[in-house]
Amino acid sequence: MRMEKLTRRQFLKASGLLGLGAVLGLQSCDALWNPGPSEPLLSFAQLGSSCASVAEGAELQGGRGRITFSGAVSTPTPCYDLTAELITMRCGPGERCVNTYEIAITSKAQEGYCIECLGSVSYRGELRRLNPGVYNIGITHDGRLITAAQVQVD
Fold first, then answer.
1. What SS3 class is residue 11?
2. What are the domain boundaries of the chain?
3. What is the average pLDDT across 80-97?
4. Which of 15, 42, 49, 97 could form a disulfide linkage to 78, CB 3.0–4.6 angstroms apart?
5. Predicted pLDDT at 144
6. What would the pLDDT profile of 13-31 be if each residue is shown by its tens digit?
7. With b meaning 16 or more CB within 10 Å and e meaning fewer, what string describes 1-27?
8. Which of 17, 62, 56 is nearest to 142 (CA)?
């Protein structure tokens, strides 16, 4: 499977009129489009957490009808829960960017006491029900763009 790393600028350009702009607070994208029933299906699992033993980052891999991803989020302590949301980017009023998605991962502190150390929370997931083609995928952690790539799906 072919995967090409993109810079933030290349990802924003590939997504149309700076598609991630709405997420990052820029004025170039006025709204986000909510996925419908024929859109890709996101599955996501938090794997575990520890004192910062893994550097923050994320990886993408294309496959047959799917894109898998994994990574780790840096947190103030290891006692955080992660959630993921699939956002289909819009290029302008009423226009959907083709095959351009953001996987937005957010962290939330757990209730109660926790060990005092910088945390690292690992995750993995996949986008399923994808047609063959090239997809522009960005992964954000708490609103920060961590990785963006063009991913080939067979």
1. helix
2. 3-36+43-153
3. 85
4. 49
5. 96
6. 665 534 444 443 333 333 3
7. eebeebeeeebbebbbbbbbbbbbeee
8. 56
